[in-house]
């Protein structure tokens, strides 16, 4: 089944799709075609940076399934590259633009208690 | 030396037949999407196919969208894949979720991009 992904690094977001059975290594090869970075110099992880993905595991291993990673709400996978010194760079995802605040009238209303005298 | 014009999409971002293209939002965020999906936005298709500058084989295909903020463009990119799946579908089509805060920006982006 197809899983829809956003691979994000700093200011870059790659929209791609894969299968639940696609391995992490295969996803890195797709990224290589776009970003021209060898898979050995890429590291994929969840967007919190708490879990690094193992090359040999399928995407489903990391909770990326057709039910959760849909076209209209793709799942985010974070990407970092290896630096000159051999270490991987720290995870950094640049936040998107913030839309303006909703005006008062459009915010969900709290029910008001009215005093009736 | 005879030059071969590829008719199959070439890997990556480079050249006029690349599989992926890059859309750059107002704040500099770069979104890389498959060319065939981005072409659902007629403005993108026109800019790349009949724009004044022809993309060379070793240059990436890039569209600058200076008026579209990244919070809207990310929603539009998700929409392309959604449209592709359900455009010919006979099954129940699920709703496409858009956060209320983003909806005005998304609406203006969709209008400009004609999708």
UniProtKB/TrEMBL annotation, chain A:
Residues 1-68 form the Ubiquitin-like domain. GO terms for biological process: transcription elongation by RNA polymerase II. It is found in: Nucleus. Its main location: nucleus. One of its GO terms (cellular component) is VCB complex. Keywords: Acetylation, Nucleus, Phosphoprotein, Transcription, Transcription regulation, Ubl conjugation pathway. It comes from the Eukaryota. The keyword Cell inner membrane does not apply. Residues 88-117 are annotated as: Disordered. InterPro entries: ELOB, Ubiquitin-like_dom, Ubiquitin-like_domsf. Pathway: Protein modification; protein ubiquitination. The keyword Transcription regulation applies. CDD domains: Ubl_ElonginB (cd01788). SIII, also known as elongin, is a general transcription elongation factor that increases the RNA polymerase II transcription elongation past template-encoded arresting sites. Subunit A is transcriptionally active and its transcription activity is strongly enhanced by binding to the dimeric complex of the SIII regulatory subunits B and C (elongin BC complex). Heterotrimer of an A (ELOA, ELOA2 or ELOA3P), ELOB and ELOC subunit. The elongin BC complex interacts with EPOP; leading to recruit the elongin BC complex to Polycomb group (PcG) target genes, thereby restricting excessive activity of the PRC2/EED-EZH2 complex. Belongs to the Elongin B family. This is Elongin-B.
Automatic annotation (TrEMBL), chain B:
This is Elongin-C. Residues 20-84 form the SKP1 component POZ domain. Coiled coil: none annotated. GO terms for cellular component: nucleus. Keywords: Nucleus. SMART domains: Skp1. Belongs to the SKP1 family. It is found in: Nucleus. Its main location: nucleus. PANTHER family: ELONGIN-C. One of its GO terms (biological process) is ubiquitin-dependent protein catabolic process.
